[in-house]
Amino acid sequence: MEVVIKPWHGIPREDIKWHPVVDESRCIGCGMCVTGCGRKVYGFDYKKKRPVVVRPNNCMVACVTCANTCVKDAISFPPKDYVQELIKKEKLLERAMNELKERVDELKV
Questions:
Q1: What does the pLDDT profile of the chain (109 residues) look like in tens digits?
Q2: Which helix (H) or strand (E) holds 42?
Q3: Rounded to 5 degrees, what angle do the CA atoms 72, 31, 40 make?
Q4: Domain map of the chain by residue range?
C-alpha cells in the first residue's frame, strides 16, 4: 500500500521540515515506531536492529505518535512551536475554517 502525500493545508509537504529523528544510543530496536506508523515513515535495518527514517515526508505534520509510544524516548521531533509558527505565518487558521464551511455536510455530527 503506497501512501499518497498531499500538501498540508496547501503547503507542499517537502517544504515542511517535520519528521522523526531516532537517537540510536537510546533505541532498543523494539519496532514499535515501525509497526505503529500507518504512513510508512520507517524502515528497519535488521543488521543494526534499528528503525530508519526512510520516508520523512510521509510523516503527518505535527504527529508525534511514534515518540509517544517509544518506551526509551529515543524519538524526537522539532518543537511544537515550529508548527504553530507555520500556522500563523501561512494564515492556516483561516484556511481551516473555510474548509470546515465547505465540508459542513460531510463533517456534521
A1: 677 889 999 999 999 999 999 999 999 999 999 999 999 999 999 999 999 999 999 999 999 999 999 999 999 999 999 999 999 999 999 999 999 999 999 998 8
A2: strand 42-45
A3: 120
A4: 13-107
Pick the CATH number of 13-107 from 2.60.40.10, 3.30.70.20, 3.40.190.10, 3.40.50.720: 3.30.70.20
Q: Which amino acid is at 74?
A: A
Helix (H, G, I), strand (E, B) or coil at 39: coil
Residues 6+ apart with CB under 8 A from 33: 20, 22, 42, 51, 66, 69, 70, 75
Asked if 19 and 53 count as a contact pair (C-beta separation under 8 A), the reply is yes
